[in-house]
């Protein structure tokens, strides 16, 4: 099997590291690598050639691979060059990039978008969302600390005592929990809110206070994600968040609902009531934002409050993000290729990320993946 590593045109990450590439080569696969694909993640071409990877042009990767792996983008020109039945693995954000999904459906390639993987125990080692969210939660707090005109830990000096910063984290998933842990390590007083009561113990185990609104809706079939709430609950939630946020020095928001617009948790009135110098980090800005003032990929200043809109904080740590993502990709391809009869779309781990036209497989012989 020939695995082609494509340079990502959008993010500085790379889909294979020298470690994962060497694993494929030891398993008697061939790995071809687009020249310069790893440079922005601090992996120069030489570290790949040392483990047996062949560095080639982008066109060669597109035309000569059995499986093409990338991070988050693919152009129309690239799609036209990929031969039929070639598998393409990446993070394509199909809920937003609907035009790309349509192009996938009209093509004869076999695309897989890894953020659609089920949240099961078997798929944990392939869970790109959790891997990158952990880094993003850390970076959210570091970014806030850089902008905050104050100090996170309590500091006692001869001139008096500096009180610790107050941090409010909205959403206690992987990103939120890492944000809580990071803020606590820096010495802040942390409160956290989530509609899922099941995360209360995790929040408290990290030393934060869990802010709870009674009457939330929870869905055991939601795969650990939050679900939409009733109007009455949302009214109570907004009132409590307003009360907590206006007293906070830093607010980190992480609330996303897959396939939906991000819920607005921080209204304009709340930002207007916050103290000048406060910081809001909105990690859901790409899907509309949890803060009404947020602008995706921008930091805006409103009444002295800095609002960072960034849903891709993890890519600012490209080396570590690449290591985690490459391992996720390696584990997914290993799982997909384990069957001697070829990959199996009845397997939910393979089926759920599949964005192609299933008729391609129904009308012809099953696609074989050589071992």
The radius of gyration is 22 Å
Number of helices: 13
Low-confidence stretches: 219-225, 363-371
CATH superfamily descriptor of the largest domain: NAD(P)-binding Rossmann-like Domain
- The total count of strands amounts to 15
- Spatial strand sequence of the major β-sheet: 11-10-9-12-13-15-14
Structural class per helix/strand content? alpha/beta
Terminal Cα separation, in Å? 7 Å
The CATH topology of the largest domain corresponds to Rossmann fold
Strand content: 15-25%
* Largest sheet descriptor: 7 strands, mixed
The overall pLDDT, averaged over residues, is: 90
Order of helices and strands: EHEHEHEHEHEHEEEHEHEHEHEEEHHH
CATH classification class of the largest domain: Alpha Beta
Give the CATH architecture of the largest domain. 3-Layer(aba) Sandwich
Total of domains: 2
- Globally, the shape reads elongated
Helical residues, percent:
25-40%
């Amino acid at each position: 099997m020939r695995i082609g590593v494509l340079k990502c045109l959008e993010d500085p990450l790379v889909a294979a590291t020298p470690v994962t590439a060497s694993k494929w080569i030891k398993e008697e696969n061939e790995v071809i690598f687009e020249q310069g694909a790893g440079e922005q993640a601090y992996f120069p071409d030489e570290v790949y050639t040392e483990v047996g990877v062949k560095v080639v042009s982008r066109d060669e990767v597109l035309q000569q691979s059995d499986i093409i792996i990338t991070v988050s983008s693919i152009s129309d020109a690239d799609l036209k060059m990929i031969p039929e039945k070639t598998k393409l693995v990446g993070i394509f954000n199909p809920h937003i990039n609907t035009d790309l999904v349509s192009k996938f459906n009209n093509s004869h390639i076999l695309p897989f978008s890894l953020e659609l993987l089920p949240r099961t125990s078997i798929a944990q080692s392939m869970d790109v969302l959790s891997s990158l969210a952990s880094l993003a939660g850390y970076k959210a707090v570091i970014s806030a600390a850089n902008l905050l005109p104050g100090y996170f830990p309590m500091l006692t000096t001869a001139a008096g005592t500096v009180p610790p910063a107050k941090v409010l984290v909205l959403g206690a998933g992987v990103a939120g929990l890492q944000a809580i842990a990071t803020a606590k390590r820096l010495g802040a007083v942390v409160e956290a809110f989530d509609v899922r009561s099941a995360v209360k113990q995790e929040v408290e185990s990290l030393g934060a206070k869990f802010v709870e609104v009674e009457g939330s809706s929870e869905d055991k079939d939601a795969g650990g994600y939050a679900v939409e709430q009733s109007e009455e609950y949302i009214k109570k939630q907004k009132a409590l968040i307003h009360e907590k946020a206006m007293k906070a020095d830093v607010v980190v928001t992480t609330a996303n609902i897959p396939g939906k617009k991000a819920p607005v948790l921080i209204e304009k009135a709340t930002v207007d009531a916050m103290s000048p110098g406060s910081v809001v980090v909105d990690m859901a800005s790409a899907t509309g934002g949890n803060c009404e003032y947020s602008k995706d990929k921008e930091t805006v200043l409103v009444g002295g409050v800095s609002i960072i809109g960034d849903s891709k904080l993890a890519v600012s740590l490209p080396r570590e993000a690449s290591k985690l993502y490459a391992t996720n990709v390696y584990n997914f391809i290993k799982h997909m290729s384990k069957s001697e009869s070829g990959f199996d779309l009845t397997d939910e781990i393979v089926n759920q990320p599949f964005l192609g036209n299933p008729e391609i497989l129904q009308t012809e012989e099953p696609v074989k993946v050589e071992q």
